[in-house]
Amino acid sequence: MARITVTVDGTAYSDDVEPRTLLVHHLREALGLTGTNVGCDTSSCGACTVHVDGQSVKSCTMLAIQADGREVLTIQGLADTWDGAALHPLQQAFHEAHGLQCGYCTPGMIMASLDLLAENPDPSDDEVRHGLEGNLCRCTGYQNIVKAVRAAAVEIRQGSTTEQGVPA
Amino acid sequence: MTVLDDRPAEVGGIGTAPWRKEDAHLVTGQTTWTDNLAPVGTLHMVFVRSTMAHARIGSIDTTEAAGMPNVVAVFTGADFAEECPTLPCAWPVTPDMVHPAHPPIAIGKVRFAGDPVAVVVARDRASAVDAAETVVVDLDPLPAVIDLEQALTDEVVLHEDEGTNKSFFFSMPTGADIDETFAKADVVVKRRFIQQRLLPTPIEPRAVLCIPQAASGDFTLYSATQIPHILRTMLAVVTGTPEHKIRVIAPDVGGGFGAKLQVTGEEVIALLVAKRLGRPVKWTETRSETNLTMHHGRGQIQDIEIAATSEGRLLGLKVDLLADMGAYLMLVTPGVPVLGAFMFPAIYKMDAYRFNCTGVFTTKTPTDAYRGAGRPEATFAIERIMDELADHLGMDPLELRRMNWIRHEEFPYDTVAGLTYDSGNYEAATARAVELFDYDGLRREQEERRQRKDPIQLGIGISTFTEMCGLAPSRVLGQLDYGAGGWEAATVRMLPSGKVQVVTGSSPHGQGHETTLSQITSSALGVPFEDIEVLHGDTQVSPMGLDTYGSRSLVVGGIALHRAAGKVVDKARKLAAHLLEASEDDIEFADGTFSVKGSPDASKSIQELALAIFAAHDYPEDMEPDLTGHAIFDPENFSYPHGTHLCAVEIDTETGRTKIRTYVAVDDVGKVINPQIVEGQIHGGLAQGIAQALYEGVVYDDDGNLVTGTLIDYLVPGAPDLPAFTLDRTETPAANDLGVKGVGEAGTIASTPSVVNAIVDALRPYGVHDVEMPCTPERVWRAMQAGRGGAS
Questions:
Q1: CA-based nearest residue to A24, from A12, A13, A32, A15
Q2: Cβ contact B484:B551 at 8 Å
Q3: What does the pLDDT average to over B58-68?
Q4: CATH value at residue B273
Q5: Domain end: A32, A48, A77, which one?
Q6: Domains in chain B: how many in total?
Q7: How far apart are CA B680 and CA B625, in angstroms?
Q8: B717 and B711 in contact (C-beta within 8 Å)?
Q9: In a domain, A167, yes or no
């Protein structure tokens, strides 16, 4: 067992973990943060995507002990990064554009989109598609996901200039 | 912020697109997937699975595992042999179908790689995984049986007590004499098509949690299932547990696509272990287990022969299928190809039809329903051979279809396969698709590219499909020897404050039932969309139902709801007449309000009446104080959505790579409740159908090992692998209360042949007449080389 302290969605958690524990299992099982899902065991599907120190990471590719001393943002803390709103613009856009059906890939898809928009605030359709190639969705055929990400991009750009707050 | 500019101000009723009620908890991670649940004291199961496709089980040594830290128990197949001798198959398609026992944990023999041989139960999952690795299973290998035709030689038999690998032979000759019809035909075209096996791949893996109540003998079983009601009944039947002691809950379920239309060994074992140990028991599969053991889809060899006159009029169709059952028959395994029997004649008129199907056991994962279940396979074969016939006759494939399809004025139409299509307008859908696609322009460009020998060749693929869905009229299912009916139940309950609870027996896993059913209720009762709650997926909350599959939730469940709501309105009308001191005949109902004709001030809203009937101070003597409506709807016919899909592909003739340039889908799903949800269903359906055409295919090696065991080896398309789709609809109302048709499977059924037809169309100058799916760059390139070789 190793002692680690990880800040998740703004709260610091100190736990003893087995060295083999993956970050996603630590989030889900030790911390009870089940908003982040597991969809595969080969880092293919991206359902478990979170942010670590501001960059998207498939949390099944990282050991919990590697997150020691770092800041993790999950889908459950995302809305809090956007001032005063119940939903982050990406969450709102996925909702409005019907960018989800069963919703299982959605937390990972949104967290990957957040990273995509941080790198490219105004992506084309093709750039969104390529930016999300590590995240699988079986329900939507991706068309409305692309639409949602581009709609959120507009909102986030406007939000930034009016100082409503910027996503992590 | 508004994404949809065309969203009307008034949303919530039929035909509008309110944002989904389901989404808020899904986009914020406040979900209840089965794997999120674990009551205090939960034990975790890990299965030890066969590493061989076919072998005799010698000894199973569980001693070390049983002694490992945190391990509570280790069981093998023999431990459950009396409690559950076999998992169920509900569809004996012939009276003499061979239906071998399928124990939830293998006994004596394993018959596919992944067949479970033992289960370890431990206090935590990691301990169970560690212990499972120490179980020593002595397997004495037998030859794998992979090829369907080889299997039928019975040189190696999977189920030795049965003596054969043939499960059934189903034959359906209909219409005129098939041999006479073929004898008088000018033209006969024959093809063999291969329907590769597919992995359904919902992104949420299967999971089950069974919580026992030892004192009362009750069990609460959570499962990532499409079928809580069927599962409850089947668990009772196969384990001997009283049905009323089992409560099944399908909480948030992350996609199904038919793969969660199953009664799995793991669910049965969860219940039996929970019963034995008196503790909550949980199992969540890894993705590798999903690929290995969640039932596969498709898996057919299709020999199809079409007869026509020299002008192109169809005369008859012969279909001979070999259908891969895999190692065992699961819930509806044999019924899947038999459902297809009705769809091969599709939208075309012909005199004679003969369908034969042989079900074959192989040492592979069992097959069963996958999005479309039998109809995609049939639609692929007929739409592909229509193109082959057109090529043979030197006709435009669209012209050949026009010549033979049922014209809109001919509905209702009795097909040669014995169905009655209630409605359709193939001309209208095709005209709209041709217009959106610029069919003539693309044909010209194709010709130009051919002339100049452009390395990028253009192909145009057509699919003018229909399908039968909305499963199903119970009497028809009875005639097909299916073990259950096809009705659906709904209850509408007015709460005292005027809010409305709707209970449906259908069970969603992404389709948006809560939204769509709220819209139907809102339109029927005139109650705001926001005041309606839809309950589902729990056999205690929704005691009657037949769940979600076969595009049935709207066309069966939605109509049940519409009728239940109608009963509420009838009761409320009676109450309104009483309270307004008017005759019932003088009461009008509009926008949720009952008023007296000619006296618009004398009125009561249905929400006010809900409080009045709750108080029950004043109501008619011949009425019970209740505004609840309950209805069971058993449809008289299937639902027949149709449409025309046109696909343009660009093929790089130097690499064999296919790129979809344009995809136009014009679907007719009748009246639409929520256009945004319908569009989403089509998008997702297209993605899965295109995936079969271009990307996906299960691969086994000669020893029966699954090569496509992970999502690295099995190509589920990502966003860059799919095009943007151009959609439109025509609207020919169906002959039912709401005019609606099913939509869940249409996109998948239609799209596969349109893509492959486009690829073959591009390559015809190279002497290519078929490319086996998935049409990978290598296969396309090889087909071109073989075609060239044949031509030179």
A1: A32
A2: no
A3: 98
A4: 3.90.1170.50
A5: A77
A6: 3
A7: 42
A8: no
A9: no
Whether the CB-CB separation of B162 and B99 falls below 8 Å is answered with no
The predicted-structure confidence for B180-222, as pLDDT tens digits, reads as follows 999 999 999 999 999 999 999 999 999 999 999 999 999 999 9
Shared-domain flag, residues A112 and A90: yes
Residues B642 and B715 both lie in one domain: yes
Question: Span A138-160, mean pLDDT?
Answer: 95
Pair (B542, B424) in one structural domain: no
Q: Which residues constitute the domain of residue A36?
A: 2-77
Residue A69 Cα, gap to closest chain B Cα (Å): 24
Taking a C-beta distance cutoff of 8 angstroms, is the pair B773, B196 a contact?
yes
- Tens digits of per-residue pLDDT, B475-523? 999 999 999 999 999 999 999 999 999 999 999 999 999 999 999 999 9
Q: Are residues B335 and B430 located together in one domain of the fold? A: yes
Residue type, B212: P
Q: How many residues does chain A have?
A: 168
Domain total of chain A: 2
The arrangement of strands across the sheet holding A55-58 comes to A11-17, A2-8, A71-73, A49-52, A55-58
Are B284 and B359 within one domain? no
Closest by Cβ to B30, choosing from A35, A39, A139 = A35
Closest listed residue to residue A143, CA positions, set B130, B679, B206: B679
Rg value, chain A, Cα: 16
Pairing mode, strands B218-223 and B352-361: unpaired
Q: Convert the pLDDT of each residue in B217-257 to its tens digit.
A: 999 999 999 999 999 999 999 999 999 999 999 999 999 99
Q: Work out whether the CA dihedral B613, B615, B621, B622 comes out positive or negative.
A: positive
Tell me what pLDDT residue B303 has: 98
Window B:669-688, CB contacts with A under 8 Å? 676-677, 679-680, 683-688
CATH no. for residue A85? 1.10.150.120
Q: Are residues B599 and B504 in the same domain?
A: yes
Q: Could you tell me if A94 and A137 lie in one domain?
A: yes
Q: Which domain holds residue B101?
A: 34-142+205-253+260-293
CATH, residue A8:
3.10.20.30
Q: Which residue of A has its CA nearest to B38?
A: A29
Locus of tokens 């066309």? B555
Question: Which DSSP category does B723 fall into?
Answer: P
pLDDT tens figures, B514-568: 999 999 999 999 999 999 999 999 999 999 999 999 999 999 999 999 999 999 9
Could you say which of A40, A95, A133 has the minimum Cβ distance to residue B19? A95
Assess if residue B94 is contained within a domain. yes
CATH of the domain at B517: 3.30.365.10
Bond preceding residue B412 cis, omega within 30 of 0: yes
Burial B250-283 (b: 16+ CB within 10 A, else e): bbbbbbbbbbbbbbbbbbbbbbbbbbbbebbbbb
Is there a single domain that holds both residue B288 and residue B310?
A: no
Residue B33 C-alpha, separation from nearest chain A C-alpha, in angstroms: 9
Q: What's residue B788's pLDDT?
A: 78
pLDDT at B8: 53
Q: In 3D, which of B323, B219, B223, B236 has the Cα closest to residue B266?
A: B223
Q: Is B659 on the interface with A (CB under 8 A)?
A: no
- Our CA-based measurement puts residue B28 at a distance from the nearest CA of chain A, in whole angstroms, of 5
Residue pairs between chains A and B whose CB atoms are closer than 8 Å: 186
* B746 neighbors B667 (Cβ within 8 angstroms): yes
Domain co-membership, A72 together with A84 = no
Same domain membership, residue B676 and residue B737: yes
